[in-house]
């Protein structure tokens, strides 16, 4: 087994001897610096490939302090203020962090700002309000009493959000705040290019320029208590300037309103159904960003170095899954790995020579402190990523942060040694080729390919109460024996469904980008999907799939006839709903232990209108967690096969639809049992039940990956406990495996 290579080690000043020791132990062939650290000569002399983090738009306060009108800007929405008489004052900076954000008083507020009567939605005429620049307060005249008013104003970002986060996390004290700058301004753009040109000349020892990242930060704004206030890993809010707004108007023929950015307080979250103004701004921004990225990449190559992009920090506008990304000429993309989904987000990026994962935990004091065991997080992170790497390999791995912190934890050091060796062994055995995928699965939403592996996300790898029921589907798929792609509603309307797709998964909460919103008012979308399923396709709906916020044509789910399920929205309460019996056995639940009495209780209650199933508490039934409940879902007729239901809501049902099948699922947080349930749903829905057994495991905590090109397969234990499983091979025979915690076992075929 190879014990060296494919590993990037972070280092820092005055730590050369220990760096050398850990580089040998972990098999590092590359050394990198992290934010706030530098590599000294003794480390550079180790003979490893040298990565250098490079920040094109920060760490040069000597420039930007002389050009403070060229920092990035953002539209901010004030709190709502109630008018009690004909005048009302709106303070701008209440709840915003003044060390990070500062109102732009330079550009004409009456041209670039907006005051709105939120009770009526009407824009207040510019003649009816004034800015008091001394107090950062907007005075509104001719207000309507008992109406609420807001101001949307431009603000300079005067502290780089990521450097600020690192500063606060690591208690950097009196360290000078790094001020970001915006290359949309010609003078600053020239400075950035000249500075990089000089840097390349001054750093001949660097082999890989790790751009961290380029020009525009994802939306990361803090409140007056230094807490995160607005976080959107896909947000384009921090990308505006008067010049950019004027140029957009000249190019697109209409002007972006401030409201187009603050979006009533949603700040264009990726969960919002994307609107024309939002899509146009993304196109405008990505065109500008990519032109300048290409220039930096070309300069890097001309200097004989590789160009690597970090998928994080200022990545906005690069759009790695948008058409044309490969034209940038980047050699590699590296990103932080938080789970299987974020691993795939990196690994599946097209148009680069290799991809690299920065594994967790980050070597920062919020994890590496006395009494904590970072090896627990390290192994958990590895197990999640390993599932995904089997299906879409990354070429390299590494860590970030202060190596001196990690070195104080011997157990963690040993854990990384094991992980690095296993990572290299995986590549050696498979040749870096993905395991076989047996089905082709498409995720259907408003964003499609442009947000591959980015659906159902708010912050990077951090599902919350409103998202985990959906995000778990991506996490399950990230390591499943299927091939995954992302398609949009527009794709289906314009081009139909690709012939090789076996299953489509769609859904999410009503009126979001993932369930589709008004996309379902287009008859062509409904017609196309119905015809595809009737012809033998398989459609899986999750949560509130194909839903419209308004009651249309007697349905809430516009494809209720395909799923066999609809949701009562208090419009048809006078019409009784009847639940068929819950089936005792089904292919989909064959691997799931049934809770005692669930089926009996459900069947006993099935004739009660809308409370058709009892048994179970919350979302967990028989070892399966269906997440946050979708109340009042019901079978549209008694021909539907009801597999799970609880307290008047359908959790899992299947429906024959012509030659195809529809499946309804209320939600699916990630767990081994839930991933197994989804896998069986996909094989059943696509009528591939006969293919299911080959290369499967009887224990859902263990998964099998088959590599036909290498004539090997492996069995992985995805837990921190020993596991036993029977593995069914491709020839119909089986083999028993006893696996230690986190273990992986290899066999030749």
Automatic annotation (TrEMBL):
InterPro entries: Class_I_gatase-like, Glyco_hydro_b, Ig-like_fold, Lact_bio_phlase-like_N, Lacto-N-biose_phosphorylase, LBP_C, LBP_M. It holds the Pfam family LBP_C. GO terms for biological process: carbohydrate metabolic process. Residues 695-746 form the Lacto-N-biose phosphorylase C-terminal domain. It is an enzyme of class 2 (transferase). Keywords: Glycosyltransferase, Transferase. Coiled coil: none annotated. One of its GO terms (molecular function) is 1,4-alpha-oligoglucan phosphorylase activity. Its EC number is 2.4.1.211. The keyword Chloroplast does not apply. Residues 5-432 form the Lacto-N-biose phosphorylase-like N-terminal TIM barrel domain. Gene3D superfamilies: 3.40.50.880, Glycosidases, Golgi alpha-mannosidase II, Immunoglobulins. Residues 440-690 form the Lacto-N-biose phosphorylase central domain. This is 1,3-beta-galactosyl-N-acetylhexosamine phosphorylase.
């Amino acid at each position: 087994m190879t014990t060296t290579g494919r590993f990037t080690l972070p280092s820092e000043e005055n730590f050369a001897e220990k760096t050398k020791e850990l580089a040998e132990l972990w098999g590092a062939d590359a050394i990198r610096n992290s934010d706030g650290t530098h590599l000294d000569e003794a480390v550079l002399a180790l003979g490893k490939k040298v990565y250098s983090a490079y920040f094109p738009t920060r760490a040069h306060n000597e420039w930007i302090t002389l050009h403070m009108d060229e920092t990035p800007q953002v539209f901010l929405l004030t709190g709502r203020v109630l008018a009690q008489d004909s005048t009302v004052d709106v303070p701008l900076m209440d709840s915003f962090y003044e060390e990070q954000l500062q109102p732009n008083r330079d550009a004409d507020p009456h041209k670039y700002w907006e005051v709105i009567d939120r009770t009526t939605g009407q824009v207040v005429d510019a003649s009816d309000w004034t800015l008091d620049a001394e107090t950062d307060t907007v005075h509104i005249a001719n207000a309507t009493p008992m109406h609420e008013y807001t101001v949307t104003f431009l603000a300079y970002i005067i502290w780089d959000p990521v450097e600020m986060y690192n500063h606060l996390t690591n208690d950097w004290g009196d360290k000078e705040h790094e001020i970001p700058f915006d290359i949309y301004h010609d003078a600053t753009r020239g400075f950035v290019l000249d500075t990089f040109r000089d840097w390349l000349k001054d750093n001949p020892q660097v082999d890989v320029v790790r751009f961290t990242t380029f020009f525009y930060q994802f939306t990361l704004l803090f409140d007056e208590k230094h807490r995160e206030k607005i976080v959107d890993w896909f947000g384009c809010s921090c990308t505006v300037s008067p010049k950019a707004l004027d140029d957009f108007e000249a190019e697109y023929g209409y002007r972006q309103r401030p409201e187009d950015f603050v979006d009533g307080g949603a700040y264009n979250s990726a969960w919002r159904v994307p609107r024309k103004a939002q899509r146009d701004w993304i196109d405008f921004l990505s065109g500008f960003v990519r032109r300048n990225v290409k220039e930096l990449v070309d300069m890097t190559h001309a200097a004989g170095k590789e160009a690597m992009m970090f998928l994080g920090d200022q990545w906005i506008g690069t759009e790695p899954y948008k058409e044309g990304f490969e034209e940038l000429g980047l050699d590699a993309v590296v990103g932080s790995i938080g789970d299987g989904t974020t691993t795939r987000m990196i690994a599946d990026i097209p148009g680069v020579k290799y991809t690299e994962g920065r594994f967790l935990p980050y070597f920062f004091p919020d994890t590496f402190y006395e009494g904590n065991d970072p090896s627990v997080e390290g192994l958990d992170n590895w197990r999640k990523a390993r599932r995904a790497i089997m299906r879409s390999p990354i070429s390299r791995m590494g860590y970030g942060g202060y190596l001196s912190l990690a070195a104080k934890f011997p157990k963690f050091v040993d854990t990384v040694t094991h992980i690095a060796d296993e990572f290299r062994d995986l590549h050696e055995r498979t040749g870096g080729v993905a395991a076989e995928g047996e089905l082709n699965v498409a995720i259907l939403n408003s964003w499609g390919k442009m947000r591959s592996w980015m659906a159902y996300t708010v912050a990077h790898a951090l599902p919350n109460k409103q998202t985990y029921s959906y995000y778990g589907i991506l996490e399950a798929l990230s390591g499943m024996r299927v091939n995954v792609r992302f398609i949009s509603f527009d794709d289906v309307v314009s081009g139909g469904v690709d012939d090789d797709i076996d299953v489509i998964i769609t859904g999410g909460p009503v009126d979001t980008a993932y369930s589709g919103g008004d996309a379902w008012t287009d008859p062509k979308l409904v017609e196309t999907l119905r015809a595809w399923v009737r012809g033998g396709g398989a459609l899986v709906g999750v949560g509130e799939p194909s839903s419209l916020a308004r009651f249309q044509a007697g349905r809430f789910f516009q494809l209720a006839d395909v799923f066999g399920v609809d949701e009562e929205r208090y419009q048809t309460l006078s019409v009784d709903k009847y639940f068929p019996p819950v089936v005792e056995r089904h292919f989909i639940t064959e691997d799931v232990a049934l809770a005692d009495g669930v089926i009996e209780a459900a069947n006993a209650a099935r004739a009660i209108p809308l409370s058709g199933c009892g048994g179970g508490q919350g979302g967990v039934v028989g070892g399966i967690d269906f997440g946050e409940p979708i109340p009042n879902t019901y079978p549209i007729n008694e021909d539907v096969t009801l597999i799970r239901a609880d307290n008047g809501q359908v959790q899992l049902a299947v429906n024959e639809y012509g030659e195809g099948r529809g499946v309804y699922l209320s939600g699916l947080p990630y767990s081994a049992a839930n991933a197994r349930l989804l896998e069986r749903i996909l094989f059943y829905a696509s009528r591939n039940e006969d293919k299911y057994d080959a290369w499967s495991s009887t224990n859902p905590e263990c998964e099998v990956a088959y590599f036909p090109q290498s004539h090997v397969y492996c069995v992985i234990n995805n837990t921190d406990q020993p596991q036993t499983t029977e593995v069914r091979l491709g020839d119909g025979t089986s083999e028993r495996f006893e696996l230690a915690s986190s273990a992986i076992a290899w066999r030749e075929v």
